[in-house]
Automatic annotation (TrEMBL):
Coiled coil: none annotated. InterPro entries: DUF2214_membrane. The chain crosses the membrane at residues 6-27, 47-65, 77-95, 130-147. It holds the Pfam family DUF2214. It comes from Sinorhizobium chiapasense. This is DUF2214 family protein. Keywords: Membrane, Plasmid, Transmembrane, Transmembrane helix.
Amino acid sequence: MFTDLVLASAHHLLVFLLAAMIAMEAVIVRPDMSGGSARLLSRIDAYYGATAALVLLVGVARVVFGLKGWEAYVYNWAFWLKMVAFAVVGLLSIGPTMQIRKWRKNADEVAFTVLPGDVAKVRGSIRAQIGVFALIPVFAATMARYGY
Ligand code: HEM
């Protein structure tokens, strides 16, 4: 029972952190971004990746060590929809991460600027991530109650 409580609390905290980091990226990526913003963005993106890895780790720990037992999830369609949504968010974040790395490389130049087309692409991918991310709590609530 106590392990489940600790894992559930960690899961929720990490998920809120993840949401905060996507929101920060959405705010920072702008056509008038400075070199300083690009450095900050690169740090946030690294924390975003690390937090996603922790969410995955704690999530899997909940499946294995949670109160309901792993069988409650592996045969649950809502669980798999949630996993697919999580994977799609991960795939959608690859493009922005590549671009953020390029921006970070040039961030120390005095005449640092970003191309509007690159900004539009990254903003589009971030928006798509937010859209798919929003489905995850719905699948989570479903899998906790139905789906098996
Ligand atoms: C690979 C990643 C993940 C795994 C393996 C995972 C696994 C789990 C498990 C086993 C539970 C317990 C459900 C129950 O009480 O029966 C849970 C609950 C929950 N998860 Fe995840 N999770 C992952 C990622 C996420 C993400 C990214 C979010 C949010 C965007 C999220 C949001 C939630 C919520 C809100 C609950 C509580 C559901 C409820 O009790 O109503 N999870 N998750």
